[in-house]
Amino acid sequence: MVQFQRNHKVRFSQTDYAGIMFYPRYFEMLNAVVEDWFDEALGVSFSTLLDKHQLGSPLAGIDTQFMLPCRLGEILNFELDVKRVGASSVTLDVIARCGSESRMQSTLTHVCVSRDISKAVPWPDDIRHRMLECLEERN
To answer: Residues 8-45: pLDDT tens digits?
Structure first.
C-alpha cells in the first residue's frame, strides 16, 4: 500500500534544450515530497521542526536509479513509503511514475539533527510514533 503520493508536472525550467528533465530536478522534487510528507502525514512542517523543536532533517544518504527520461509537460506521480524508522533516522522508498512507467526510484535516509550542535539526536516521541504508524501501515 502506498502511504503518501504527490504529483509534479515537468516544467520548462526543469528541462534541457531537448525538453528532457535535467536529473538534479528529480532531487528537488524528492525533497518537496519529503517536506509534504512531514507536513501532511506526520503533522509537523520543516519550519516547525526548525523553529519550535530546533531540529533539522538533512539527507544522510540517497540511492537512486533512473529508468526512463521525463519530458516537458509530463505528470510524475511520486509514491513515498516508509522503509525503516530508527531512533534518529528514517529511511524512505520513493518511486516516480508517469502513467504505468517507472521513471525514477530512490531510497533516502534522513537524520534528525539538533540545530544547535549539528549532531544526530532522537526524533521527538510524537513524530517518531507517527513514523512508526506509517511503517506499520506498509506491512
So the answer is: 999 999 999 999 999 999 999 999 999 999 999 999 99
Q: What is the CATH number of the domain that holds 132?
A: 3.10.129.10
Q: Which of 108, 10, 8 is nearest to 62 (CA)?
A: 108
pTM of this prediction exceeds 0.85: yes
Q: Is the dihedral of CA 99, 77, 137, 92 positive or negative?
A: positive
Output b/e per residue, 94-132; b: 16+ Cβ within 10 A.
bbbbbeeeebbbbebbbbbbeeeeeeebebeeebbebbe
Q: How many domains does the chain have?
A: 1
> Which residue range is the domain that position 101 belongs to?
4-138
